[in-house]
Every structure is written in structure tokens, then in C-alpha cells.
């Protein structure tokens, strides 16, 4: 240790000697050393003073915090004691309130239940389209209130119930907003309300939409699809009727359920998949239904063609009946020409020639009738095929999804019924038309046979012969 001290001293002396040699004298070094020592001492004393001041302040703050902690602990104990006392007092007061209220507590429960139930009915009532939603707000607050209702609140509840009963029997006209199927809202439209059954505007039926997030007060909506014309045609005469006039009007006594079903139910063009004049794959008929419709259309065209042909030929035969000479322009004329072309033939030969002429003319009257008969026989068979295919689809849906969801089976059942209906709709008219055309054809052939027999009879009479 001594050696180390001696070495450091030597290093310092050597360094000092070097400094003395370079820049300053020994006196300058002494003076600087004294100044540095003085400054260091002053700085240290200032630091010590600052530390002591901070220490004293921290001690004072600690003492204050401990005092405050003790005060808060005392206050906490006081508040805890006071809270326990208040809990006991509240329990005693609730017991006293229950004992003193008696039947009033039961009445409060009944009032809350009635208010909640009435609010739900008013939300779905058509009268809410005309009257303010303040009554629903009052009923909601009354249903959620914990304290007993006041006399004024009970009177207001009774008034709302009486007001609703009165409005259900009125026919009124008022202004309200209408939500169109396109999503736009038309403001301040004239609305006619018939009790809680119908709401109409501009000849169209409206439906009440209950309050929702988008429409907190509810709104009247125009049905995307109106009922049939025989119902909508009664709206304008009813709205334009003068006071005292009695006009018929369809009533939805279900409160909008029937109108909702009108929107959801399919029309026959939609069931057949016919929209805007074209076929689509959204119909219930399926491929078999389209085949049946094609057969029906072809059969109808065939019937029109044969009907025009038979009536044209019938008119020509009736015209020929008024003439005594035959003609090549109609069937009867050609039969009569057989007699004029063979004036010397005997009765047997002439009879055979006339039969041959009638047989030659018969196919033109019966042309297409056999094919039409085949069509009205095939159409119901195809309908039966569609029924079987639809039922197979139904049973497949039952196998996969069970019977819990009827909508999963509705497609197959609908195809089964629609194809059956299509087959009958095609077969029944074609059967009647075929019968009519067959009767017309037979009557024309009968005329030919009758005239042929008349020719034979006249010839036999002329020759005084006997036909064997």
C-alpha cells in the first residue's frame, strides 16, 4: 500500500512538473488548487443543505399522510357502521311497506302486466299509424316502474284502453308516411283507415309495420303485390263514396295475416315459371310441366286448324246442297260427279263407286283427330308422372331433413300437384274439343252418305229396279 502511494505521488509530481514546465508557475498552481477546493466545498455544502431540506419536507409529508390515513380509517369505520344501520333500516322499511301496501302490491303487478300487454297490442294495431307513439312510451315506462302507480296514471291507462276500443270502430282519413316497395318513403299521404282491418291509399291496400330499429314509431307499407282486381276495384268507389252511401269493401279480419299471405303466395304464372313472357327455372311445374304445356299448346293449335277446316268444308257442302250439278271444289260435289260421270252404270256399280268416293273423302274430315285423341290421353298420364316425381322429391327431403320443416317438402308436393292440374287442364278441353270436332266430322260424312243413298234411290226409282 505504501509503495502504491509513493508511486502515485511520483506520477502526480511528474505531471505537475510537466505542467509547470509548459504553462505556469508553482504559485499559479497553488492558487488554482485553492480556488478549486473552495468551489468544491461550497458546492458540497449546498448539496447537503438541499438534501436536508428535502428530507425534512418528506418527513412532514409522511406525517401528514399517516394522520390522513388514520382519519380515513376512522371515517371508514363510521361509514361502515352507518351503512349497516341503513341496511337494517331499509329492510325494516320494506317490511313495513309490504305490510301496509297489502293488496296495492298485487294491484301494481296487475297494472304492469296490463300495461305491457296493451303496449304490445298497440304496437301491432293499425290505429298506431294515426295516433302518436306517446301512449306506447307511457305504457313502456309504466310497465318498467317499481313504485306504485298514481291515480292519474291509472286514469290515463284506462283512457288509453277506452280510446283504442273507440278507434277500432271508426272509419277515419288522416295523413301519414308510406313506405313504397322500392324503399322510398312518401310523406304526408292521404290514408283511409277502416277500424283495425284495412288501410288504403290511392286505390291500394296498405299494411302496418310494427316499430323497429329503422322505424321506431312504425310505418305504413304498400304491399308489393296487391290482391286481385275484383278486390282492389272496390277501393276507389268506396273512397269516393259520399256520406251515407253503402259500398262493398273487402275486410281483412285477421289483422293483416291475409294480406301478408297475398304477398307470399305465388300466382299461377309464377308457379308455371312464366315471367315476362319467358320460361324460367323458378316455377313449380318442372320439366314435365313444360312438356304438358307444350302438348296443350300444340293440341290447341291443331284444334283451331281442324275447326277452321271442318267449318270451311261444311260451308262448301251446304252450298253444294243447293245445286243439282257436282263440282270438284268440295267433297259433296265430287261425290255427285260420280253419278254424272257414270250415267250408264248399273245400280250395283254406281253404289260401289259412290262408296269408294265417300271413302276417299272421309280422311280429310278425320285428319288430325286421332292425334288429338292421343294428346288428351297422354296429358293426364304426364301429369301423373309429374306427381310421382314430385312425391319422390318429397320423400327424399323427408329422408334428409325429417318432417320438422314443412318448407323443405313444399317443393316436391307443389310439383306433384301442379303437374296433375296441368295434365287435367290440358286433357279436359282437348277431350271436349275432340268430341266436338268428331261430331262435326261425322255429320259431314253422314251428309255424304245420305246424298249417296239419295242418288241410288233416285236411280232405282228411275229404272224401276230393286236394290238387293
Quick recap:
The protein is an alpha+beta fold and 468 residues long. It contains 14 helices and seven strands.
Mean pLDDT: 78
- How can the largest sheet be summarized? 5 strands, mixed, barrel
> How many β-strands, per DSSP?
7
The run of helices and strands is HHHHHEEEEEHHHHEEHHHHH
- Low-confidence stretches are 16-23
Total helical segments: 14
The largest sheet has its strands arranged as 1-2-3-4-5
Helical content band: 55-70%
Amount of beta strand = 5-15%
Compute the CA-based radius of gyration. Answer: 55 Å
Note down, in words, how this protein is organized.
There is one protein chain. The protein is α+β, with helices and mostly antiparallel strands and 468 residues long. Among the domains are: 88 residues, no CATH class; 178 residues. The strands form 2 sheets. The chain has a 5-stranded mixed β-barrel. Strands 6-7 form a two-stranded antiparallel ribbon. Strand 6 and strand 7 form a beta hairpin. The longest helix has 76 residues. It is elongated and about 180 Å long. About 2% of the residues have low confidence.
Amino acid at each position: 500500500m505504501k509503495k502504491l502511494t509513493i508511486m502515485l505521488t511520483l506520477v502526480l509530481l511528474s505531471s505537475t512538473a510537466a505542467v509547470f514546465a509548459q504553462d505556469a508557475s508553482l504559485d499559479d498552481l497553488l492558487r488554482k488548487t485553492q480556488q478549486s477546493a473552495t468551489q468544491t466545498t461550497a458546492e458540497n455544502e449546498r448539496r447537503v443543505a438541499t438534501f436536508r431540506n428535502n428530507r425534512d419536507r418528506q418527513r412532514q409529508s409522511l406525517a401528514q399522510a399517516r394522520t390522513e390515513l388514520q382519519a380515513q380509517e376512522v371515517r371508514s369505520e363510521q361509514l361502515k357502521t352507518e351503512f349497516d344501520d341503513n341496511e337494517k333500516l331499509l329492510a325494516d322499511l320494506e317490511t313495513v311497506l309490504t305490510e301496509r301496501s297489502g293488496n296495492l302490491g298485487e294491484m301494481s303487478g296487475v297494472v304492469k302486466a296490463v300495461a305491457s300487454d296493451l303496449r304490445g297490442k298497440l304496437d301491432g294495431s293499425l290505429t298506431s299509424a294515426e295516433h302518436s307513439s306517446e301512449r306506447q312510451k307511457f305504457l313502456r315506462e309504466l310497465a318498467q316502474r317499481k313504485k306504485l302507480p298514481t291515480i292519474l296514471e291509472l286514469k290515463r291507462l284506462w283512457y288509453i284502453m277506452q280510446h283504442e276500443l273507440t278507434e277500432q270502430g271508426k272509419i277515419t282519413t288522416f295523413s301519414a308516411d308510406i313506405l313504397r316497395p322500392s324503399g322510398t318513403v312518401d310523406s304526408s299521404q292521404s290514408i283511409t283507415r277502416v277500424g283495425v282491418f284495412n288501410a288504403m291509399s290511392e286505390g291500394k291496400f296498405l299494411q302496418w309495420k310494427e316499430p323497429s330499429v329503422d322505424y321506431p314509431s312504425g310505418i305504413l307499407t304498400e304491399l308489393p303485390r296487391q290482391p286481385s282486381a275484383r278486390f282492389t276495384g272496390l277501393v276507389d268507389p268506396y273512397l269516393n263514396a259520399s256520406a251515407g252511401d253503402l259500398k262493398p269493401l273487402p275486410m281483412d279480419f285477421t289483422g293483416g295475416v291475409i294480406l301478408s299471405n297475398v304477398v307470399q303466395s305465388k300466382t299461377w304464372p309464377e308457379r308455371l315459371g312464366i315471367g315476362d313472357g319467358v320460361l324460367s327455372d323458378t316455377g313449380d311445374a318442372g320439366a314435365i310441366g313444360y312438356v304438358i304445356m307444350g302438348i296443350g299448346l300444340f293440341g290447341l293449335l291443331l284444334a283451331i286448324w281442324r275447326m277452321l277446316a271442318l267449318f270451311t268444308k261444311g260451308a262448301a257442302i251446304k252450298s253444294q246442297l243447293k245445286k243439282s250439278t257436282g263440282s270438284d271444289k268440295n267433297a259433296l260435289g265430287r261425290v255427285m260427279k260420280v253419278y254424272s260421270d257414270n250415267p250408264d252404270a248399273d245400280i250395283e256399280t254406281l253404289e260401289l263407286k259412290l262408296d269408294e268416293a265417300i271413302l276417299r273423302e272421309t280422311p280429310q274430315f278425320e285428319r288430325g283427330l286421332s292425334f288429338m285423341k292421343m294428346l288428351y290421353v297422354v296429358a293426364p298420364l304426364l301429369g301423373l308422372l309429374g306427381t310421382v316425381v314430385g312425391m319422390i322429391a318429397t320423400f327424399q327431403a323427408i329422408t334428409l331433413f325429417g318432417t320438422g320443416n314443412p318448407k323443405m317438402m313444399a317443393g316436391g308436393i307443389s310439383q306433384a300437384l301442379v303437374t296433375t292440374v296441368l295434365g287435367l287442364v290440358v286433357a279436359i278441353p282437348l277431350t271436349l274439343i275432340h268430341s266436338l270436332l268428331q261430331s262435326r266430322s261425322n255429320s259431314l260424312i253422314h251428309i255424304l252418305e245420305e246424298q249417296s243413298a239419295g242418288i241410288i234411290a233416285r236411280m232405282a226409282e228411275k229404272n224401276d229396279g230393286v236394290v238387293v
